[in-house]
Design brief:
Rossmann fold, 48% helix, binds flavin-adenine dinucleotide, 3 domains, globular, DNA Cyclobutane Dipyrimidine Photolyase, subunit A, domain 3, five-stranded parallel β-sheet, mainly alpha, binds iron/sulfur cluster
């Protein structure tokens, strides 16, 4: 009996469900680089190079372990360009009795997979993705009967279930969450340790050349290329984070410094999301560092919450709410994405820096994504479909299961408050407090109105004015509406007119 075992590009784990019970003498492992997946949105060049290189390295490791791997490279002459076409070719070549695959990361792919059994007339076993800590079914049970969901309660249950940072049945240190000790503004002269940088080997070089030739029109810089592309390298990157950055992760989690794209973040999302690292090992390594006195509790808890709480919570919402979630637009935002998101000039230094770093690294840290780029998209009323597409394209860690709830739910409030209890809207004051961007900006962050004023300042109030019907009943933003109620008419007129001038300028592709 021959089984065809398909491994997708984000399933690069040696203990992935599809490999369980593999008969190395008879089974075929199928891995494919397909045009459809690389171009259904025009992914960042670095993201494509990272994934193709990691896939090729993973296939070579499987071969070394004695598996029979059928690997289709993008430029193979007979490559059909789609999962279906490649499975059909493999069925013709190997005549398997069964296909086994692991549950995919995107609803779109799952819908196709479900149809394979009747299309190919072969049993297809879609196995649960064993790399996550909470299954979609378990999440749904947890969510049942709750009017609105809050990550914090889900996270506490996960800590108890996995016995992480627990002291008996109490949280370690007495609190579940140490954010009150976190999130300091950046200090002058803060020293950020250099990041992990992998060497480019022959496989990666070949892939970089391929991407340069075939995807030259995609957004983003291909080189310098420094991502880990094997599990060993990814483990190195993780260890480097635990020993050199975790200590200050909590303190500077929200800080942004010009020229310091990585700060004290872990830079492991790309490795976690494609399977080179496992969530529980990252959590346990952080917990071990804390127990050995090498990392403080506020940093350790904050880091663990991101992976055990946010990452799993976001995935649970995705599978529970798809496909409707992708269409949500509670605030009826309609504007197009301004050209500066693709690298056109802008005078707004915060956006300029975050987009420049995104273009260079296919990475921006959480607060850049949330409070600069996302905050702008929210208060400028950009249509969620354009914002989602942008985030899916530009980040090397972006797959729809994690990108969509973060964008539609967390930054755009497009789900009407299901994921986040209030919109994360902020004026320039927040960006000025948490970064040094405003020092190098043409606009004045202290000016509220007029052509020299920081656009975040008037767009913030215009956002609340525009969306009063949908938002004014939300008790968590009552304060904002009470402040607006006290503003005189001249001030309101100035806000509206500044916002209109700004919107007109971006529609006309003027530099703003
Ligand atoms: C608008 C927006 C879009 C985002 N899109 C993605 C995306 O496409 N892919 C992605 O992996 N993350 C996404 N995130 C979450 C987060 O920004 C990234 O996971 C993080 O910046 C990755 O960098 P890091 O590994 O240095 O993370 P750290 O800040 O060091 O955090 C550690 C880990 O926690 C996890 N994590 C933290 N926050 C989240 C979150 N909100 N959702 C899911 N996991 C989280 C990640 O696995 C991350 O590697 C998005 C956040 C926002 C606000
Ligand atoms: S002044 Fe406003 S636009 Fe300029 S960097 Fe600061 S927040 Fe951004």
């Amino acid at each position: 009996m021959t089984t065809l075992r398909l491994i997708l590009g984000d399933q690069l784990s040696h203990d992935i469900a599809a490999l369980k019970g593999c008969d190395k003498d008879n089974d075929i492992i199928l891995m494919v680089e397909v045009w459809d997946e690389a171009t259904y949105v025009h992914h960042h060049k670095k993201k494509i190079a990272f994934l193709f290189s990691a896939m090729r390295h993973f296939a070579a490791e499987l071969q070394d372990k004695g598996y029979s791997v059928h690997y289709t490279k993008l430029d193979d002459e007979k490559n059909t360009g789609s999962f279906r076409g490649e499975i059909e070719r493999a069925i013709k070549a190997y005549k398997p009795d069964e296909i086994i695959v692991t549950f995919p990361g995107e609803y779109r792919v799952l819908q196709d997979m479900i149809k394979w059994e009747s299309a190919f007339e072969i049993p297809v076993d879609i196995r649960e993705d064993n790399r996550f800590l909470c299954t979609p079914e378990k999440f749904e049970q947890w969510a049942q009967g709750r009017k609105s969901l809050r990550m914090e309660f889900f996270y506490r249950d996960m800590r108890r279930d996995y016995n992480i940072l627990m002291d008996g049945d109490k949280p370690e240190g007495g609190e579940w969450n140490y954010d009150s000790e976190n999130r300091k503004p950046p200090k002058e002269g803060l020293l950020v340790p250099p990041t992990y940088t992998a060497q480019i080997d022959d496989i990666t070089r070949e892939v970089i050349d391929l991407v340069a030739t075939r995807f030259g029109n995609h957004f983003g810089d291909l080189e310098p290329f420094y991502f880990a592309v094997t599990r060993d390298q990814a483990l190195h990157a993780l260890d480097k984070f635990i020993t050199e950055r975790l200590q200050k992760f909590g303190d500077y989690q929200d800080a942004m410094v010009e020229g310091e794209p990585w700060m004290f973040h872990a830079h492991i999302s790309f490795y976690l999301n494609c399977g080179l690292l496992k969530p529980l090992e990252c959590i346990q390594k952080a917990q071990d560092a804390y127990k050995k006195g090498k990392a403080p509790l506020n940093a350790t808890e904050g880091f663990i919450r991101q992976i055990m709480g946010w990452r799993e919570y976001i995935r649970g919402i995705y599978w529970m709410k798809m496909p409707d979630y992708a269409q949500e637009n509670f605030l009826e935002a309609k504007r197009k994405l301004p050209n500066f998101f693709w690298g056109a000039p802008t005078h707004m230094n915060c956006l300029k820096q975050c987009i420049k770093e995104t273009k260079e690294n296919a990475y921006a840290h959480h607060i850049q994504r949330l409070m600069v780029l996302g905050n702008f998209a929210l208060i400028a009323g950009i249509d969620p479909k354009y914002v989602n597409e942008w985030y899916l394209i530009v980040y090397a860690d972006a797959y729809e299961w994690v990108e969509l709830p973060n964008v539609s739910g967390m930054i755009l409030y497009a789900d009407g408050g299901y994921l986040a209890s209030k919109p994360y809207a902020a004026s320039g004051a927040y960006i000025n407090k948490m970064s040094d961007y405003c020092k190098g900006c043409k606009y004045s962050v202290t000016k509220k109105n007029g052509p020299q004023a920081c656009p975040f300042n008037y767009l913030y109030w215009d956002f609340f004015l525009r969306n009063e019907d949908q938002l004014s009943n939300n008790p968590r933003i009552g304060m904002g509406y009470r402040t607006l109620a006290k503003m005189d008419d001249d001030k309101i007129t100035a806000i509206k007119s500044d916002a209109q001038r700004f919107f007109k300028a971006i529609e006309n592709n003027e530099i703003v």
